[in-house]
Amino acid sequence: MTPFFLARPILLLSACAALLCGTAQAQQADAADPSTQILSVSLEYDDLNRSSIFTGDVIMTRGMMTLNADRLEMREDKDGFQYGTATANTGKQVRIRQERPENAEIFEARGQRADYDSKAETIVLNGNASIVRMICGKPYDRIHGDRIVYNQKNDTYSASSESGRVRSVAQPRNKTEAAAAECLGRPAAKQE
């Protein structure tokens, strides 16, 4: 899953302006470091403290990832590590959608709050959190709990729940690989 708080605030504003103006440079973003676009009702930017606060129907797009929230706070430390917090108003959820077309996969994550830490390479979803992995638009794997932590370094998840039990449904790997191969029109991998 691609991190969703990667652009430096000043570069972020330049990328947003370029995208809104429709320049060829912004339209041909490098796949390894795609441009970030953030739409919101308001923006507070503090260059001295390296922070930005976006509020009101926030939609952030970076490559094949989209984040929807009511508020997005971003900051960068002196070493260049980025941190972000996305929150939703009462009764709503932060939504993150990451597409992986090479595998016919879509990941959808939800929670009342999402925190990103580029130094630890983690995304933490809190409050009625869930992650669904879909292949060709059909759900295959699901995780639901009060808190879900995704570690990008080793591609692992952990979930916990204070109000009950964690729920997860996972399909066998050969089943998900066969579904992706069928969707992409490729021959299924043979099991050894």
From TrEMBL:
GO terms for biological process: Gram-negative-bacterium-type cell outer membrane assembly; lipopolysaccharide transport. Residues 1-26 form the signal peptide. GO terms for cellular component: cell outer membrane; outer membrane-bounded periplasmic space. Residues 159-192 are annotated as: Disordered. Its main location: periplasm. Pfam families: LptD_N. It is found in: Periplasm. Residues 37-155 form the Organic solvent tolerance-like N-terminal domain. The keyword Amino-acid biosynthesis does not apply. InterPro entries: LPS_export_LptA, LptA, OstA-like_N. It comes from the Bacteria. Gene3D superfamilies: Lipopolysaccharide (LPS) transport protein A like domain (2.60.450.10). Keywords: Periplasm, Signal, Transport. The keyword Signal applies. One of its GO terms (molecular function) is lipopolysaccharide binding. Component of the lipopolysaccharide transport and assembly complex. Belongs to the LptA family. Involved in the assembly of lipopolysaccharide (LPS). Required for the translocation of LPS from the inner membrane to the outer membrane. This is Lipopolysaccharide export system protein LptA. It comes from Kerstersia gyiorum.
